[in-house]
Amino acid sequence: MKFTNSPMQEVSLNNRKIFIKRDDLLDINFSGNKARKFYYFYKNDFKNVKKLISYGSAQANSLYSMSVLAKLRNWDLDFYVKHISSYLKENPQGNYKASLENAANIIEKDVEDLNDYISKNLLQKDVLYIQEGGRVFEASFGIKILAQEIKDWQIKNNINDMIVCLPSGTGTTALFLQKYLDCEVITCSCVGKDDYLKKQFFMLESDENNHPLILKSTKNYHFGKLYLEFYEMYKKLKKETKIEFDLLYDPLGFITLINSKYFESDKTIVYIHQGGLLGNQSMIERYERKINFKK
């Protein structure tokens, strides 16, 4: 299985040269930041663990990656969600379907705080608990390797003035990249508002000077909701770069980047591909239904 050393690819977007760190080309089951975040749990020994527990949405990339991790380690997976839509239950697809096929137990629990519920009720000696989206210190193990790959590429290509850009859910990848890279790391909030993302940063790093820069979005977006500008950006990226990006994070990442001062600067831009392409199947179907309904 390939968890490291993804290629760097030069592309043109809006007639501007940028470099894409192709983490989508890592192992198909762990592509993107989940390959980096969960690398520690793949490489290290957990003799007493029999069950992996986490939580999130029923179509989360982390759900599928954890289902594969649990299968490889011969663990059970209990993944808690607040809600599963009736449509998804009746038409399993994407990360949800693939996770069920890997024997994941996807459990609906209507509580306000799933993290609090799990922490107080479910943590036994044989349980490994990974918080939503892989927001754990152990994620730094794989992200440090990613940072070193970027550094090695930078030195090899004699690049001085560089920024690294990626969208954030919990912000874990962006935070640890900023810790291990000498250049500036910029990101944007895809789940919740900017103050939510700052809160996630502080959970893992108390010194604000070590936090990445959060770029302001021109519009408030609700995570998982369909926005036609996201679908248009997805198609534009595919046409201009010949690379498929995910539909949840990357469109907002690129929209925010293009509208920032950095895109107009002379700095070398490295964009980290988020992987997560398995989830595109259900997202594209949702977009097509919305577009056809509007017609």
UniProtKB/TrEMBL annotation:
GO terms for molecular function: 1-aminocyclopropane-1-carboxylate deaminase activity; D-cysteine desulfhydrase activity. The modification N6-(pyridoxal phosphate)lysine is found at K34. The keyword Lipoprotein does not apply. InterPro entries: ACCD_DCysDesulf, TrpB-like_PALP_sf. Its cofactor is pyridoxal 5'-phosphate. It is an enzyme of class 3 (hydrolase). Its EC number is 3.5.99.7. Keywords: Hydrolase, Pyridoxal phosphate. Belongs to the ACC deaminase/D-cysteine desulfhydrase family. PANTHER family: 1-AMINOCYCLOPROPANE-1-CARBOXYLATE DEAMINASE-RELATED (PTHR43780:SF2). This is 1-aminocyclopropane-1-carboxylate deaminase.
